[in-house]
Amino acid sequence: MGIVSISLNEDNLTALDRIQDTYGLSGRSEAVRMSINAALADIRELESMDGVVEGVLVIVRGNHADPWMIQIQARYEENIKTQMHSHLRNHKCLEVMVVSCQAEVLSEMMRAIQAEGKADYVKFVRS
Predict the structure, then answer these.
(1) How far apart are the first and last CA of the chain?
(2) What is the mean pLDDT of the chain?
């Protein structure tokens, strides 16, 4: 088994310890492996989609003033059928979008959102 050294901020360490405690894992390494497997399951689900897909895209993000999400929404506006924006506590925002598009376009949109590194949560729920 390979060893990887990573740097985590305090919030990440707290989250990692919470994952470990919640699932009764033996250590942080197990929590990291479980998190990687969960992310891979999401990737595999997205990769298995083909043709036209419809569903709801849910995003939680911070910093309402940062225009990155508006720019992504503008780029994919023909695929977003309905969009709702709501302000949450701690200066976070909730974006809920009903999406109908080719699977490849959805993958592209989700990669663009993830690549910004500014979303706390991104999940597509297929109808």
Answers:
(1) 39
(2) 93
- DSSP notation for 8-57: --HHHHHHHHHHHHHHT-SSHHHHHHHHHHHHHHHHHHHHH--SEEEEEE
Chosen CATH of 51-126 out of 3.30.43.10, 3.10.50.40, 3.30.70.1150, 3.30.559.30: 3.30.70.1150
What H or E segment, with its residue span, contains residue 123?
A: strand 119-126
Look at the block and give the residue holding tokens 């597509």.
124
Closest CA to 93 of 77, 113, 115: 113
> How many degrees, rounded to 5, is the angle at CA 62 between CA 61 and CA 68?
75
Longest dimension (CA), the chain: 47
Residue 96: predicted pLDDT: 97
Quick one: tokens of 55?
A: 């569903």
